[in-house]
Amino acid sequence: DAAPETRSFEADVSKLLHLMVHSVYSDKDVFLRELVSNAADACEKLRYEAVAKPELLGDDPRARITVTFDPDQRQLTVEDNGIGMSADEMTEALGTIARSGTKAFMDQFAAGKDREGSQLIGQFGVGFYSAFMVADKVDVTSRRAGSEEAAAWSSDGLGTYTIREAEPETAPARGTRVLLHLKEDAADYAQRFSVERKIKAQSGHVPVPIFLREKPDAEPDQIADGAALWTRSKSEISEEEYTDFYRTNAGQFDAPALTLHYRAEGTHEYNVLAFVPKTKPFDLFDPERTGRMKLYVRRVFITGEAQILPRYLRFVRGLVDSQDLPLNVSREMIQESPVLAAIQKGVTNRLLSEFDKLAQTDEERYLKIWESFGAVLKEGLYEDYARRETLLGLTRFKSTAGNDWRTLKDYAAGLKENQTAIYYAVGTDLDRLASSPQLEGFRARGVEVLLLTDQVDSFWASSGVDFEGKPFKSVTQGLSDLSLIPLPDGEQTAAETSREVASFIDFVKEALGDAVSDVRASERLTESAVCLVAPDAGMDRQLERLLANAGQ
Ligand code: ADP
Ligand code: MG
């Protein structure tokens, strides 16, 4: 037997563990969900590999998770007969954090409050390490499916871990055993009542059956049946069950803002279970962030990487389970498959129409979703030309018409005589934008101006969009059409004032010289003396600033 080898955790892991060990959580239960979810993932990975290599299943084809509690030893074990890990895989998986964003996690984690901290764990995929919230020592023993060898990993979470070959008799025949030596104040996790209740509540709907037993030699009882929730009929599923599933399967900690569960029939058959989260993930605008919809084929997990939804729906979590895709298709081939293309189209359309329905029936709930994810949805306005009209209908705006969110229909209903465009102003700060002198002429005429403050706004708004035949036009872009729109009685614009203005303009032009391309009396000012505008053919000023920031 080789001697154990002691290694140091990657610096980031050490820091992370330090935070896990020392932060006081109100919600320590999450570790159990993380371990069960890893065990279920491992079973699903094996199911997938076994499609091509059925011999991996040997004489034990049924996936199972076994949880063992031992009150006398104050121990809790989560064991699966899934894919398992080799010693190298263990070093990689349990000694590093193979994800970008870990630094960002720790900054938020250290700064954030308790509640936020526990919400962050799942998002950042630091699940396994959460075991150290309740254990002062963790032993992992594992055997990769199809391998003779087994390996053992052990750590107290204080900076180092050991890794060694395991005696074959002590290792699982296949899969992974995670043994927690519970801290004194976590003794509850070695009691049947507590463990059973928590697992049923948090993980009752993982697609692998879960068994529970007291001590390793006792007969286990099944406490969760592993029936995939999404294959059951909607009417039999309670809201709590959906929420549990959302938390375990999608690794979320809040409750969904919207749940969509349906079965598509016809040319292609598939089940969809999708959730819109309540809270915004930290990395929503990370360019590397991909969608979070998992792909299953006839209940076999295939990949979390398939692009099932367009990028502007990357906040949606959940899964699609296809009846038609071949199980043995490679993950790379799937992306090219026409079946996937049909699924993408179907699910995207359905989600958008679901948003629309919600906007009609429960505006308040829809606006909550809009406030979290509107800035992402708007990316679709220039990325998904075919659905632009639908997306414009879903878009909500702040405007000079008041504090409420406005739709383009609202805007269109308030068009003034001779108004031929939809006017918008782009900026970074709503209050500042609302008080900009650029808007005075519009205000004076009662012409509504949309106030756009998201990064994406400069892109889509200047990309030639129109609504009901009216083009979008920036207020900063050249002389607008205000002279055609009548002022209410008794008000004057600068252009209507005397000839003295003309000679004053000549004077200003001379004084400023090449610094400006033109000086004009303006229809748009009623109170301020001057404002800067971009030439008609020029770039919108906000876009110009954005490109300048991006180094263009
Ligand atoms: P995540 O599950 O998001 O990848 P975790 O911290 O929960 O992150 O787990 C890290 C990695 O450790 C997993 O990706 C997996 O490779 C490995 N792992 C953890 N638990 C198991 C298990 N029971 N069986 C096989 N591999 C596991
Ligand atoms: Mg995990």
TrEMBL record:
Statement: the UniProt record of this protein carries the keyword Phosphoprotein: no
UniProt subcellular location: Cytoplasm
InterPro entries named among the record's database cross-references: HATPase_C_sf, HATPase_dom, Heat_shock_protein_90_CS, HSP90_C, Hsp90_fam, Hsp90_N, Ribosomal_Su5_D2-typ_SF
Domain (Histidine kinase/HSP90-like ATPase): residue spans on this chain: 27-186
Principal subcellular localization: cytoplasm
UniProt-annotated stretches for the region A: 1-331
Keywords: ATP-binding, Chaperone, Cytoplasm, Nucleotide-binding, Stress response
UniProt cross-references to Pfam families, sorted A to Z: HATPase_c_3, HSP90
Gene3D superfamilies named in the record: 3.30.230.80, 3.40.50.11260, Heat shock protein 90, C-terminal domain (1.20.120.790), Histidine kinase-like ATPase, C-terminal domain (3.30.565.10)
Coiled coil: none
UniProt cross-references to PROSITE patterns, sorted A to Z: HSP90
Entry-linked SMART domains: HATPase_c
Described purpose of this protein according to its UniProt entry: Molecular chaperone. Has ATPase activity.
Subunit structure: Homodimer.
Family note: Belongs to the heat shock protein 90 family.
Xref: NCBIfam families: PRK05218.1 (NF003555)
Protein name: Chaperone protein HtpG
